[in-house]
Amino acid sequence: MKLPFEPEFFGYLIHVHLVFEYAAFFFGFRYYVYLKKSTADYISATNRLSILVGAVFGAFLGSRIAGALEDPLAFMHSSNWEQLFQVKSIMGGLFGGTLGVELAKKFIGEKQSSGDLFTLPIILGIAIGRIGCFLAGMADFTYGIPTDFFLGMNLGDGISRHPLALYELFLLVVLFGVLASKRSKIKPQGWLFKYFMLAYFAFRFLIEFLKPNTFYIFGLSSIQWLCLVCWLYYTPDLLNKIKNAH
Known about the structure:
Layout: E1 8-9, E2 12-13, H1 16-38, H2 45-69, H3 72-76, H4 90-108, H5 116-135, E3 153-154, E4 160-161, H6 164-182, H7 191-207, H8 222-245
């Protein structure tokens, strides 16, 4: 299959990446609704809505800020600040959404953990989106550096590169399978989401070394620094869990 994949429908080229992006939101949300109906939720409907609003706004701001920080020099030399709302990063969206949820919970006084119900729908949504990223080829910044590795692929520029979107898709499928099968056994409440965040951010930290980034701070990309911040954020919880396991 030639990349980018741009099928034609009645004379119009289909923007496959955008189609999969919308599909990711649609199926992720429908799966969330399904889980909410079939899972005992200890958070009231009103508070759950407030938490969802906090997640959406946090994710929106976080994704844009993290996306801009991937190459901040480009924005420093640009007079068009509207670009800030055109770039986005799933990593910033996840961490920003997490902070948005925590702020919303503090505001409404909710003490129950709320992330578990979002975990599997988020993984499903990201996985669907990554299919679109792969089909977009070089148009989306999810391609890797040139490689002679047997998994290298021509993503549209005639050069064999690491197909990072497919690597990530594989991880997401494994994560979904493991967490879905262990969902009822993972205790205490909230750790399903924390396991996902720790695993996903650790993977993204490592895979960034295979990405052709142009902006580094002490040898690490901005996304890698965000991964470290995420791990530091969850370190107290992780240490307490390890301590209580003995």
